[in-house]
Records
---
Amino acid sequence: MRHELCIAAGDFESLQANLLPCVEERCAVLFASKSRRSDGQVRFLVREISYPEATDYTSQGTHDAELTPGFVARVAKQAVRSGLSLVFVHTHPGAKAPVFSPVDNRGERVLSAFLTIRCGPKRHAALVMSAGGLRARILGTSDELRVVMVGPKRSIAFDPGFSVDAPSTMFDRQVRAFGALGQQRLESIRVAIVGLGGTGSIAAQQLVHLGVRHFILVDPDTIEEVNLNRVVGATVADIGSAKVSVAAKYIRGFSSATTIFEHVGDVVHDSVARKLIDADLILSCTDSHGSRAVLQQIAYQHLIPCIDMGSTITQSEGRITGIFGRIQMLAPGLPCLWCSSLLDAEQVRRDMMNEPERRLDPYIPGSREPAPSVVSLNGTVVSLAVSMLLGAVAGAPFESTHLIYNGCASSLRAVRGQAKKNCFICSRAGAIAWGSDRQLFTRLD
């Protein structure tokens, strides 16, 4: 099992800008929470960066950099106060990929012993950077960490166990498009699909055809006759079956080399939402404000990119007045759904209630009417979302992170939003990168 160090793309760019242009070696200290997956994998999530001043070095040259005991004591105290781990960063000269030196090894052993006294048995990490790359490990050990950068793109900056196998000839046409490395990335990531109805079932179909082999499927519902016009893979014989089971059957029918975790449940429940922490990327195919609120918190709090999608058909006096689709990536550096004014607080409140609470609430007049849904519109929206995924993961040249589709006008436009400075979800003052150290806003029943 390979543990990870995850850092927002903007923070990584800050490290490069502040450390690498200098002739002499330089240092930084990252404060990181932890995200704990069900298989025992630990992901260090970088929350903030501290850059030492010139007076915080005892020595600094082209081949060495040593921080003062006073500076180390200060950051250790801050880590204890905030409950975070420390990641000590330093640079090496040259354009080659760096390796930890014997001097680094000796220094880390001393530093690790000091932090054990000051911070207790909490694990910390080390990162070395050069113009040629980087390398990371658990502080004072030889246990290396995969380094993942998360933003509009999800990229692996360092993977000690990485190797590119020759892709199957099945994917020859895709490899010609975005290369063997892009195909390998698709085959290695674990994608969660939340909602396996009209959009989610099509997403499962497209992803397994693209070569994705690891899935987490979440949906509380079963197939009904009214679903058959839009749920891909479902037949009359599947009526009464769980939607996740129908999707899993399709995926396995296409490829036996898949791992699928099926969860019949609503993501607004804490026990279900936590299953998504195991994902590398989430596709939000739900139709409720409450579930979207939970999914976006997971995306920012655990640094797991989420692509949210939805389609709408508006009507007036029995006539269609609009056909729209929306696809939006939720990741560090991008505005969340609250910042984009796309969530309704009252709808979120309602979705978080159980049925007895809804019946007693005087502000809820009745159940919601089913929305119109057409498989062709769903397919258009999903194709745009999956193309966005290919841009984020496989290196395909899809740059947009927020798209609006107008079916009546046959138009597609990119949208640029602005994150609010102190947003309680997507800002550093909010949930971002708190990992398992903070509770999700979910139902605990």
Note: Residues 307 and 329 are 4 Å apart (CA to CA).
---
Amino acid sequence: MSHTITVRLNKELAEWLAETSERTGVPQGKLVRDQLEKARTAGGQRPFMRWAGSIKGLPRDLSMRKGYSKGTKG
């Protein structure tokens, strides 16, 4: 490892990190590095968005569903 950074954590996050490290036996630094790597791999994308627009069989405008169109009462 060639770079060191300092990060200030709020109390809740610091407690979570310490508890997770203790429970899993994984050093806190490795937990942080793993999460940074995971974020880098995701590339800032929201993985669930890959499914956006891919579901077939639904009307494009869900307000067109029977019972939800304009002028229809409950």
Note: Residues 7-46 form one domain.
---
Amino acid sequence: MTGIERCQCRLNRAQRNHLCANMLVWLCFKELAYKTKQTVYQLKHNLMSDYLKQQLRNPTIAFC
């Protein structure tokens, strides 16, 4: 969900920072999900869906 399993950091400090950032994201998702009365997975799906719709309407990267 937050990318913890994809960490490729080798240094202890970098691993710690990566884990802390992921936990912070998870807590923000949990708080927002609670406020909107959704699950974390519904919230993430809706955010990604809205982003993808916006990008399809107005792409920010020009493809040649």
Note: The helical segments are 12-36, 40-57.
---
Amino acid sequence: MSRRRDPEGVGAARTVRQQMRGLLLREELAFDTLRALLGLSVRDLEDELLHVARSARSRGERLVVSPPSCLACGHPFRDRESRHLHAPGRCPACRSERIRDPSFRLLPR
């Protein structure tokens, strides 16, 4: 029996990375939305996103990351994405805990 290939990468027979790639090629998704859709922990989702970013380069794609920002004062967390892909717990500028999640999208180069 041959398996029909799902070009979008979303389906029950697909790996988590293939599902994630298919989702991110279609639309920009926030970190917590991806966690809910894929059923992963924060650490597991970060690991998978880093792997998807590495393998995207070999396919001629790039992972675009919209950094998190504080909803209270607007402080952007631009330098954070090199270390962490999830939102911090609180803003260093105003101490608010209302932080917008980072969002991700796969784009062709």
Note: The chain has a mean pLDDT of 86.
